[in-house]
Write a structure and sequence with these properties.
Helix content is 40%, strand content 13%. It has 309 residues and is of the alpha/beta class. The protein has one domain (2-302): Alkaline Phosphatase, subunit A (3-Layer(aba) Sandwich), CATH 3.40.720.10. The protein has a seven-stranded mixed sheet with strand order 2-3-9-8-1-7-4, sandwiched between helices. Strands 5-6 form a two-stranded parallel ribbon. Helix 5 (96-103) runs parallel beside helix 8. It starts with a strand and ends in a 7-residue tail after the last helix.
Length: 309
């Protein structure tokens, strides 16, 4: 069994409005083909196609206020309704109550404790580790869960060796922002091929894409449309090289944002739960999946693992 979790930060299912919603404006032929001509907007889910299931997942979790990153991501990773347990939606970085919940166990720690190969595929630059070690920066929920499971984060050396992926998929950001000439540049399709190759080296592979949330907060439509075109190209390469009978791909998020550029704030929209793979695996995974808290249990159920390490 292989499972690839693609986390798109700040992506909800918004109105079919080209003025405010880049998902309605961007050209995404691979995604539309996967969804039988549909776009990733409200009203489409639930949808079942030959290769994919699309669900609308509740990110509000019965807690007043707008969903936030730390509690949303912790919920996805632990299966616990984190905002309900800590009494609020909180973010972007986890405070002590959220950190304590993650420390109690996550999908990463369960995988590791049962001998499964698990990894966060993102590469982190040297400066990131320097800031973490000096206390100038704190982990967000996802790398926190990874490191607490005893799994090492991937480095620039891993990226150069082809064993990790840059946060923008293509490596362009490493060349432009970090001046790292050792970073390989991939076109989107090749990045998707690379993503599939890496994912099949693990039982559970996770990729975090945070630029979508950044574009939403900036209300940057051109950048958002460009990001979605890149993601669609990555999806094309990934789908061409993914073996559906051997595992699933999940694309989901922690809260809405990018789908409504009328506001800089998060939204209370449901988030997509896009599941790709063989029908029998999809049906097993999607059974009783309605909100963020159901994701981790569904993953562990697919591997026939308990919910605690």
């Amino acid at each position: 069994m292989r499972f690839l979790f693609i986390f798109l930060d700040g992506v909800g299912l918004g109105e079919a409005d080209a003025r405010a919603n880049p998902f309605f404006k961007a050209k995404m032929p691979h995604l539309r083909d996967l969804l039988d001509g549909h776009m990733l907007v409200e009203g489409v889910a639930p949808l079942e196609t030959a290769r994919a299931t699309l669900l609308a997942l509740d990110a509000n979790l019965g807690v007043p206020g707008l969903p936030q990153s730390a509690t949303g991501q912790a919920t996805l990773l632990t299966g616990k309704n984190t905002p309900q347990l800590v009494g609020e939606h909180y973010g972007p970085k986890p405070h002590q109550p959220v950190r304590e919940l993650i420390a109690q166990g996550s999908v990463f720690s369960v995988m590791a404790s049962h001998g499964k190969r698990a990894a966060l595929l993102n590469a982190y630059p040297d400066g990131y580790f320097e800031h973490i070690n000096s206390g100038l920066r704190m982990y967000s929920a996802i790398p926190l869960a990874v490191t607490q499971a005893g799994i090492q984060l991937k480095t620039a050396q891993d990226l150069h060796a082809g064993d990790a992926i840059s946060a923008d998929f293509t490596g362009k950001g490493w060349r432009e922002h970090f001046k790292d000439n050792g970073a390989v540049i991939y076109n989107p399709h090749a990045a998707g091929v690379h993503l599939a190759r890496l994912a099949f080296q693990y039982d559970f592979a996770f990729f975090e894409y945070w630029l979508s949330d950044f574009a939403g907060h900036k209300q940057d439509m051109p950048n958002a449309v460009e990001q979605l075109a890149t993601f669609d190209g990555v999806l094309g390469g990934l789908l061409e090289n993914w073996e559906d009978e051997q595992g699933l791909i999940l694309v989901t998020s922690d809260h809405g944002n990018m789908e409504n550029l009328d506001t800089r704030r998060h939204t209370d929209n449901p988030v997509p739960g896009l599941v790709i793979g063989a029908p029998d695996l999809r049906h097993t995974f999607c059974r009783d999946l309605h909100d963020l808290a159901g994701v981790a249990p569904a993953i562990l159920r697919l591997f026939d693992l308990p919910e605690k390490a």
